[in-house]
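Postdoc handover notes: sequence design on the structure in folder B. Input tokens:
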């Protein structure tokens, strides 16, 4: 899957967050390191989300925009 990320240069290097996954962010000294780190963060986020989904009843809602 592909996820949109926001990469920002900071005083310490680069910060990066995944727009579609609230609270999923990382950082790195270089752009390449930050991207590698967010890939790992996304993978771990999805693993935890999958575990949490198994604890409850899954439903879908429709929202008109």
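Designed sequence:
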């Amino acid at each position: 899957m592909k996820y949109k990320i926001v990469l920002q240069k900071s005083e310490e290097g680069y910060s990066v967050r995944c727009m579609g996954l609230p609270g999923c962010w990382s950082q790195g000294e270089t752009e390449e390191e930050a991207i590698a780190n967010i890939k790992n963060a996304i993978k771990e986020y999805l693993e935890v989300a999958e575990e949490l989904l198994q604890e409850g009843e899954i439903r879908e809602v429709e929202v008109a925009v």
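Context for whoever picks this up: The first strand starts at residue 5 and ends at 10. Don't rerun without checking with the PI first.
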